[in-house]
Amino acid sequence: FSVRRLVRLRRAALLHDVGKLGVSNAILDKPGALSPDEWQSMRDHTRHTYEILDAVPIFRDLAVDAAAHHERLNGTGYHLGLQGAALTPSARILAVADVADALRSDRPYRAGLDQDRVVGMLLEDAASGKMCPQSVAAMVEVLHA
């Protein structure tokens, strides 16, 4: 990526979860499994991210990539229903980075996973067509550094 694209990617990464402002803390901090309604509210954070960023002119060009961090190459992600070539390289990178961070981090309902398990899960997602193989390979390199 050029320096300009890296700056744009970094900004999208910093803003990708801004939509969680629209999700109740009771859901975000819940120590157990989410109900179907709670899960839908959580999934809505990507839509909120898009709406917030799209409404701010200086962030408008980041809205789709930032909101696409739960999209998957095979179409199994959410909320935009993007897949394959519709996912930009930046969106693909954000998706992998978001999964790696989520798996490595402690959550109210589980401890963070160890590096080898995270790498294994990412490699499975790449092999199954969910995640971009090049983005996963780059993340694996970072995790092993």
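(the above was protein one; protein two follows)
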Amino acid sequence: MQRLEVITRFLLALALSVFLFMSGISLPPIGALLLPFVAQPVLLFGVKYGIGHGLGVVLVALLVLAIFGGTELSLLYGVFAVLAGALLALVGRLRRVEYLVVAAATAMFAWALGVARYFFGSWAALAGDFRAGVSQQFAAATRMQEQLGFSKESLELVKERMPQLIDMTLQLLPGLLFLTFAIVALINLLSLRRRFPERRSAWFAIENFRNWKAPEPLVWGLIASGFSLFFPLADLARLIAMNLLLIVGAFYFAQGLAVIAFFFHKNNVPRFLRGITYILIVFQQIFTLMVVGLGLFDLWGDFRRLGKDNLTSSQAS
């Protein structure tokens, strides 16, 4: 009976993972919302029945997609297979959530680079294809603004600056891709945390996101990458500095959100007001930068007094 249950759950995890993946790539853009959860059935099965069984699911999924969908689909699914393998191997061993997320995102990023090189043959071809795609998206957005009745002055300004915007997006593509993978990894970790509450203390060093704080040495990466942009550097060095600044800034953005969530919880702020605040933070650049600054200054201000008050886990949360 136990063996039959394992086989049934194995096939269910396999079917759900492949279904989510195929739906995600077949129904853009709405289907893209399903892609972060492709690895979740594998993770749930692997946590319950063991790492070997979880890895077995992704290996069979890769084989099925290669046979019935082709090598390209199998390689794309490999991004989520790498995520599942990394999290199954590291959850419970790396208890700092930022280390888990960075490790998983790095593995996904490395696989994605290999797949991109396989598809396009060279980085120049990849950059050219991406530039063409972004140009089409910007053009479509401009046409939509024209239909919505935006002023001609603002539209002309957008068209004038479009080449610079495309170049900037292309330069920041590695950092944006890495952050996308990091968000996907974090979503899966939060889902595991919710599904297995009894394992939280064994898996994670903190009880709640509201208590999270970026590693203190990370500030030197922010300082080095920020100041390096003001000095004459080789193109590759400047590209690395820009993407590093983007990634480190995302860490302090997350810390700023944690500070806000901490005081929202402490003061019992209504969920409606919390939602409005988070929407403003996401869609208004000035608020986004303010949250990054809040997270950065929390290193010295310790606004939540995490390092001063000897709180229990229940009191802190």
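Reviewer note on protein two: Residues 235-266 form the longest helix (32 residues).
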